[in-house]
Amino acid sequence: MAGWARRFIYFPDDRVPPPRPPGLMGEAVTLHTEDGLDLAAWYLPGAGETAAILCNGNAGNRADRLPLSAGLQRRGLGVLSMDYRGYGGGAGDPDEEGLIADAEAAAACLAGRPGVTRLVYFGESLGAAVLVALAARRPPAALVLRSPFTSLLDVARTHLPILPPGLIGDHWDSIGRIRSIQVPLLVLAGTADRVVPYSQSVRLFEAAPGAKRLITFEGADHNDPVLTYGSRLLDETVRFLDDVA
User: Fold this and answer.
1) How many whole angstroms separate alpha carbon 78 and alpha carbon 3?
2) Prediction pTM value
3) How far apart are CA 94 and CA 72, in angstroms?
4) Rounded CA Rg of the chain
5) How many domains does the chain have?
6) What is the domain-level CATH number for residue 91?
7) 127-150, pLDDT tens digit by residue?
8) Contact, 86 vs 74, CB < 8 A?
9) 93 near 110, Cβ under 8 Å?
10) Do 126 and 172 touch, CB atoms closer than 8 A?
11) Is the pLDDT of residue 79 over 90?
């Protein structure tokens, strides 16, 4: 896919977050990808043996997700929040295989951390697609998807109906991948989402073959606080993970 086309998909914030998460019990972590990149991340330790990889959407960097990370940590989860390649001032250029490799490096890091015996994935929007792809290769104990889409082409055509399929080289075919993933699934989605239509999140949920739960946020748009770090979102996530433990 041409570089100009990727600029319409990935919107990295190249500001460099501080080495440690500000004001929290956490630490700086460096992730090492299979293709030789070093990526910056934060790890917020939890109270138990469950830790989550947090993959954000296509914009910003890990500092923007601190309210979500901190909220999950306050509820007992360990959280590893990372910057993809090209995000947060890091090296590399984002693309589909690259972001999956970044998430795989995060999984390897958490799997080797003392005290972590249960690894779960939490993905937002594009990050949901990243972790669906990773789950197909490396299944977690549970998968949490916030505002997931069925495929990149589907969501692109929501905004540009005549978009030719060959224009987008990164497919992010989540609905194709989800059919082979048997792990417990939680989908969190807003009915007024103007970025990823609620109907796509429901279609993805319905295609999943394993145990699953759908939590709907009536009237919530893609970046509304209730859907990004609100107490209901945090509580429903922890309740689901407790139920499927």
Assistant:
1) 36
2) 0.93
3) 27
4) 17
5) 1
6) 3.40.50.1820
7) 999 999 999 999 999 999 999 999
8) no
9) no
10) yes
11) yes
